[in-house]
Structure formats: structure tokens, C-alpha cells
UniProtKB/TrEMBL annotation:
SUPFAM superfamilies: P-loop containing nucleoside triphosphate hydrolases (SSF52540)
Superkingdom per UniProt: Eukaryota
InterPro entries registered for this protein in UniProt: P-loop_NTPase, Small_GTPase_ARF, SRP_receptor_beta_su
Name of the protein: Signal recognition particle receptor subunit beta
Subcellular location as annotated: Endoplasmic reticulum membrane; Golgi apparatus
The organism of origin for this protein: Thlaspi arvense (Field penny-cress)
GO BP terms, alphabetized: Golgi to plasma membrane protein transport; intracellular protein transport; protein localization to Golgi apparatus
Native organism taxonomy: Eukaryota, Viridiplantae, Streptophyta, Embryophyta, Tracheophyta
GO cellular component: endoplasmic reticulum membrane; Golgi apparatus
Chief localization: endoplasmic reticulum
Protein family: Belongs to the small GTPase superfamily. Arf family. Belongs to the SRP receptor beta subunit family.
Topological type in the membrane: Single-pass membrane protein
Signal peptide residue numbers: none
Alphabetic keyword roster: Endoplasmic reticulum, ER-Golgi transport, Golgi apparatus, GTP-binding, Lipoprotein, Membrane, Myristate, Nucleotide-binding, Protein transport, Receptor, Transmembrane, Transmembrane helix, Transport
Length: 258
């Protein structure tokens, strides 16, 4: 047993001696360069692991002005509808546990209600790079008069570089579905897919220099469907006035784990 240990020690000393001789033969400049590359590589991989662990908890509420985004924001924050008549010209944002979640161990959500007015949509661009998910709100009651405008806005979001590259999931939230005359989520989905298909055709005819969008949508030669998007697009119903936000909360918690 002692002899085996002695042999191992001698072998280790021999390897150490040979290693030292090898290192001494390397020119100092090459040795420092190799150590520098090793250090930078180590820092790079540790940075990637740290970045992956730090997942965003930011969820954006977007959509046309009047779709009910701000009412949904307050419902998710504190269960209040604020009487249903709220128009925001500046982003409403806050970090909180969703209203129906009462455990202290739940991870807070950073919710941002982005103004829907066309002149203020540039605000959305500021938040997209750090978004974990997007809730695109559509007024299911007054849908048809606004279908074209809502589809154009959603088209711009779905072709945004940050949304495509980061594969940011989008929830098409059909709001105000508590009303009898509100359109169903299936009807809204189909109509918006048709409108986006028209937009694909019209915008593809414009020269590349005039197109503001970063990416094209869908599969070439096939009629557009949300299923063709690089990022996941799902459809849900909600009512900010009555507090029916379960499907929205489920979507948020799918991407901001509690």
C-alpha cells in the first residue's frame, strides 16, 4: 500500500516537473496571451449563466387607445376598475403581486400600461427589449370599426426586432367580453389574421427602403395565421370592468413564474 502511494507521488512530481519545464519554454508574450484568453472566456461563460438566471418580470399592456388597457392594469394591481373611464397619456407602471395573489412568497410582476395613442407608441419601443411578455388588448365591443387599426398596430409589434429575436410571447386579449354584443375571441382572431394577411401583401409591394418593420410575418405562399409567428401568440377573453382577468393572469404567470 505504501509502495503504491510512493509510486503515485513520484509520478505526480514527475508530471509537475515536466509541466514547469514546458511552461518555461513558452515565450512570456504567448503565455500572457493564453492566460488572457482563458480569463476572458471564463468571464464570458459566467456572464451568460448569470444572464440566463436573471429573467425579466416585465409585462407590457399595449393596444389602441380606448381598448381598456388602463382598467386592466388597475384590476391586476388592486382589483379596482377606477369606474371604467381611464385614459393614460403616460405609461402607468408598477411592480406588484397580482391582486388575487396574496402570498408574500410570490414573485412580483413589473406591469407597464403603454399609451395607445398613435403619437405615443414610441414609448412601447423603449420597453420591448426587456419585456418577458406582451398583452395586446382589443375592444371586443367596438372591434369592427377598429379592426384595421388594431391589426396594423399588432403587425408592427409582431415584426419588431426585439419581439422576433427574443421570441416574446403575445396574448391577444379580447376585452369587454362581458357585454352581450361583444364579439367572440375566435371571430376577433380570424378577422385580425385576415387583416394582417392584407397588410403582408400590401407592405411586401413596398420597396425595402420604405418598410419600417424589421421582419416579415408568416410563411411565404401560405395564408397568414398567428400559428406561423416565430413567437407564441395566444388568444384570451377578459373584462376589466367586472374583474374577469383569470386568463390574463394565467398568461402572465406562464412567463413570470411565481
Amino acid at each position: 500500500m505504501d509502495k503504491n502511494l510512493e509510486d503515485l507521488r513520484n509520478l505526480a512530481e514527475q508530471w509537475l516537473h515536466e509541466g514547469n519545464e514546458f511552461v518555461q519554454q513558452i515565450p512570456p508574450a504567448q503565455l500572457y496571451a493564453a492566460l488572457g484568453v482563458l480569463l476572458l472566456t471564463t468571464i464570458f461563460f459566467f456572464s451568460i449563466r448569470l444572464f440566463r438566471r436573471t429573467k425579466s418580470n416585465t409585462v407590457l399592456l399595449s393596444g389602441l387607445s380606448g381598448s381598456g388597457k388602463t382598467v386592466l392594469f388597475y384590476q391586476l394591481r388592486d382589483g379596482s376598475s377606477h369606474h371604467g373611464a381611464v385614459t393614460s397619456m403616460e405609461p402607468n407602471e408598477g411592480t406588484f403581486v397580482l391582486h388575487t395573489e396574496n402570498t408574500k412568497k410570490t414573485k412580483p410582476v413589473h406591469l407597464v400600461d403603454v399609451p395607445g395613442h398613435s403619437r405615443l407608441r414610441s414609448k412601447l419601443e423603449e420597453y420591448l427589449p426587456r419585456a418577458a411578455a406582451i398583452v395586446f388588448v382589443v375592444d371586443a365591443l367596438e372591434f369592427l370599426p377598429n379592426c384595421r387599426a388594431a391589426s396594423e398596430y399588432l403587425y408592427d409589434i409582431l415584426t419588431n426586432a426585439s419581439v422576433v429575436k427574443n421570441k416574446i410571447p403575445v396574448l391577444l386579449c379580447c376585452n369587454k367580453t362581458d357585454k352581450i354584443t361583444a364579439h367572440t375571441k375566435e371571430f376577433i382572431r380570424k378577422q385580425m389574421e385576415k387583416e394582417i394577411e392584407k397588410l403582408r401583401a400590401s407592405r411586401s409591394a413596398i420597396s425595402a427602403a420604405d418598410i419600417a418593420n424589421d421582419f416579415t410575418l408568416g410563411i411565404e405562399g401560405e395564408v397568414f395565421s398567428f400559428a406561423h409567428c416565430v413567437n407564441k401568440v395566444t388568444v384570451a377573453e377578459a373584462s376589466g370592468l367586472t374583474g374577469e382577468t383569470a386568463q390574463v393572469q394565467e398568461f402572465i404567470r406562464e412567463y413570470v413564474k411565481p
